[in-house]
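Weekly structure sync, notes
Attendees: PL (lead), two postdocs, one rotation student
Agenda item 3: pending single-chain targets
PL asked that the sequence for the first pending target be pasted directly into the notes so everyone works from the same version. It is reproduced below exactly as submitted, 378 residues in total.
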Amino acid sequence: MSNNRMPALLASFMTWIVLNACQSGKANEGAAQSMPVPELPVLTLDTTTALTSREYAANLEGRENVDVRTQVEGYLEKVFVEEGSFVTAGQPLFKINDRSYQAQLEKDQASLRAMQSAEANAALEVDKMKPLADNKVVSDIQLKTAQTNLQTASANVAQAKAAVAAAQVNMGFTLIKAPVSGYIGRIPKRVGNLVNSSDAAPLTTLSDISKIYAYFSMSENDFIRFSKGAAGSTLQQQLLRMRPVTLVLSNGDDFSENGRIEMVDGQFNRTTAAISLRATFPNPASVLRSGNTGKVRIEQLNAGVVLIPQSATMEMQDKLFVYQLTDSNTVKRQPIVTAGTSKDQFIVVDGVKTGDRIVTAGMETITEGAVIKPAAKK
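Predicted structure, written out during the meeting:
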């Protein structure tokens, strides 16, 4: 082949490549144009009335938690109860050896009797001196001296009675009784241990769990919504008219008894910008104990809210998004802000509004900027 023919062959080859590429592009363009526009369900947003709920982490405490301590020093002689047992108010719990307190009581009682005898003698002396002083047989000073002695004797009797009463109180303190009805906690001391009022640990802790208090905190914004959601001119009226609240146990189950919010703290915590509340739950079967944890679920009836199915949302980097449609049916990813749930729907407070359209299914098949066809309503 001569060198003169090479440029012609090369030009022909390049022309073939260009024509081939054009035909391939037209084929791809035709294939793209022939792809059907996806038809997906679309929801036009509107306001409605919905029952929404929010959950708050809570710590549970019994109605009363009483540290049982001794008020006198002595050796623990008897323990009448077992750890975890239920006791009633006034039931004996512990007995401290009382021999030294019994001896002190007997000594004070003997002193009282001696003082009472001295008082009686002083009274007889006054009775004897009075007629003699009236008849000028003895001077008035002698009568006054006798009367002063009687007053001193009476004061000694009163002091002795107080000592006896104190000894009786100390004697009574050696038998420790339950101040309230409830369940006995751990008993760290055993028979033979020396106990006194300055011990760091109590003899036991007694918990009245007939009612359980659930303490939880609410943010400032949540508290504003909470306050607006109940009828009443005062907070106490709002609490009385609120719907009962639910306790969600640590395993996710709902507690069998509903409760009510009965207390709201008087001020916000400046560090956390949160306020403390207390819900009270009946505990007839004593299932709940002090120290349990859970969540308090609060439900509120909200009017004029926008609801979006949870299935129509996507979560990315701790934010929620929906696919919103433009007027040309092009989808765009739109972030939203929620304020609780209503069954399987989110209540939306920002990001979308009434009249907006969102895709409710098939989001995994489309991307931002795609054009879709809203499915006809059935």
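Discussion points:
- DSSP finds five helices and 20 strands in the chain.
- The longest strand covers residues 47-68.
Action: rotation student to compare against the earlier draft before next sync.
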